[in-house]
Amino acid sequence: MSIIISYFWNRLYPNLFVRQPRESSDTTLIRIPTPPIRPTSSINIRLSQRTFSIDEQLVKSPPGSHTALLASKQVVVTPSISAPSVPEAAPVRDSECVDYDALYEDEVETDVQLESQGSVIKHLLSQVKIGMDLTKVVLPTFILERRSLLEMYADYFAHPDIFVQIADLKDPKERMIQVVRWYLSSYHAGRKSAVAKKPYNPILGEIFYCLWDLPDSDSSEGVAPEGPVSWCKCNQLAFVAEQVSHHPPISAFYAEHYNKRISFNAHIYTKSKFLGLSICVYNIGQGVVSVLDYDEEYVVTFPNGYGRSILTVPWIELGGAVSITCKKTGYHCDIEFITKPFYGNKKHRVTADVFGPDDKKAFLNITGEWNGVMEARWGDGGEVEEFINVQNLDVVKKRVQPISQQQENESRKLWKEVTAGLKFNDIDHATNAKASLEQKQRDEAKLRKDTSTQWETRLFHKEVDDSWTYIKPLRQRLNSSSNT
C-alpha cells in the first residue's frame, strides 16, 4: 500500500485500535446518549467503562450535545448499565500455538464491502461542515490492516535497488533522473486490497526496524558500524521509524545503505479537511536523499491524499504539486499528481518535468499513472519511451527480527495481540488489547505530568526548523571515523 494511502486512512479512521494519552487530567463526568445508528456490521464490540476522547464522543453523540463536549478537555463516558473496567488482553487462543510473526507476513487481506455502512457515514456527515478540520472528528473504522503506520512507511523502499542505484551514477543529470524514478515508483507498493485499509496509529515512542537484501549482494559482508539497525550488514538497506510526537502526530524515519553511502531522512504529519463527499489529507513535511560521495541532497515533498465516494466504497487518489530539488547541482523536478476530473474516468495520473541548472524548459517530460506505466519524452519533439512500469517491478520483501527478539516498544511486538485478534476475527480480543495499550499510555502521560517530565525521543532529534533528524546519520559516522 502506498504511503500516502496509509496517511489517508490514518486520518479518516484514526482511533479504533490505539488512543494516544492527553496530557491533561481534567475530566468532566457526563452521560452521552447512544446515537440512533442501527449496527450494520457483523463486528460486535462490548462496551466497558473507560475514558474516551472528545473525538470519539463527537461520533457517538447527537449534534445537540457537541457544545458541551467541545467545552471539556476530556470526557468520561459512563455506560447506562454497569460494566467492568477494561481487562488487560490475554493472549489470543492458545498463545503457544500462535505464530505471531506469520500473522504479519501473511499478506492476504479480505476486502470489506462498505455499502452496508452507509447509514453510519451519513449520521457522521450530518455533524460536520464543509471545510471543517477533521482533527476533532473521528469516523468509525471498518477497514483495518494488520500493521502499524510506521511499518507502512517502509513501503517507500520496496524497490531498494532503484534507490541505491542513485549513488552508482556518475553524472548529476543521471542521478537526478534516478531520484525521480525512485520517487515515482514508491507509491504503488504494498497494495493488498482493492479498498485502501487503515494501519494502526503509532503510539508515542513506538519504533520499527527492518532491512532489505539487494539482488546479488555478498552474504559474507560484516555489520554496518553503529548503523540504525544493529543486525544490518554493510551491503543491506537499513530502515528505522519512530513516532516522535503526539500533538501533532509526527513520524520520523531514516534509511541508509552503508556501502553505497546513501541515506534518506524524513518526517511527516497530516492535517485533514472535510470537502462534502470527500476527505482531503494534507501531508506536511519533507524527505532528504543524501548522496554522500557527491555531497548532494535532494529535498522531496509529498502529495495530498483524497478519499472519494465516502458514502459508498471509498477509494483513494493522490493530488497536488510536489517537487524534488538539488540545491548543489541546480537540477529540479516539478511533479503534479492529477485528481480524477468530474467528467472522465482517468485516475491516478501523474506528470513530471525535469529541469537542468538555469533551464526554463524541461529536458525530460514524464506522463502516466503512478500505479502503472509512466512514459518519458526527451525534449521537444523527442521520441516517447517507457520510463518505468511499476507493475513489472518485483517488490523486495523486508526482513524484520522475530517478535521474540524485539523490544517492548517495537511495532510488531506492541501490536501482536491486536493483530492476532483481527486475523482470527476475535474482535473482543482486539478491542481489549487496544484498550490495554491505551490505558498504559494514559498512565505514562499522567506520570510525566505529575513529575513535570518532558517526553524524550530515542532515535531522532528536533531541529530549529521543526524538522526531525536521525541522531547518528551515515554522514556523521563516516566523518567521525575519518577523523580518528
From TrEMBL:
Which InterPro entries does the entry link to?
Answer: OSBP_sf, Oxysterol-bd, Oxysterol-bd_CS
Keyword Transport in the entry? The reply is yes
Set out the biological process GO terms recorded for this chain's protein. lipid transport
Q: Which domain of life is it from?
A: Eukaryota
Q: Among the entry's GO cellular component annotations, what is one?
A: membrane
| Segments forming a coiled coil | none
Q: Name one GO molecular function term.
A: sterol binding
Keywords from UniProt, A to Z, are: Lipid transport, Lipid-binding, Phosphoprotein, Transport
Query: Which PANTHER family does the UniProt record give?
Result: OXYSTEROL-BINDING PROTEIN-RELATED, OXYSTEROL-BINDING PROTEIN-RELATED PROTEIN 9
Q: Which family does it belong to?
A: Belongs to the OSBP family.
Name the UniProt record assigns to this protein? Oxysterol-binding protein
